[in-house]
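Weekly modeling sync, notes
Attendees: S.R. (lead), two postdocs, one rotation student

Agenda item 3: backlog of single-chain predictions. S.R. asked that every request posted to the team notebook include the full sequence so nobody has to chase files. The rotation student volunteered to paste the first one in as an example of the format we agreed on. Action items at the bottom.

Example entry:
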Amino acid sequence: GAPFVVAEGNVMQNPMRLKLVNRTTEPMDVTLRIEPRTSAEVQWNTDTIRLAPRESLTTPILVSAPATSFV
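Predicted structure, as returned to the notebook:
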C-alpha cells in the first residue's frame, strides 16, 4: 500500500508501528511527543505506556502533518 494518505483538509497521514523495548531491570514509562516547533501531530492509543522490565511492545501510531510541510 501507499506509505501515506492525503486526508481531509490536505493533511498527510502516515500510519506506522512503533516498537518499544525496555532493556532495563526496572519498569519504564514511555510518553511519545512531537517537538513543538513542528506542525506534525502523533496519535496513539494512550498518553503513557508502562513497560515491565525486559518487556517489548509494538503499538500503532498515526503521524499527521499539513501537506504544505513537505513543499
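Discussion: group reviewed the output briefly. Strands lie at 5-7, 11-21, 28-31, 41-44, 48-51, 56-66.
Action items: rotation student to repeat for the remaining queue; S.R. to check formatting next week.
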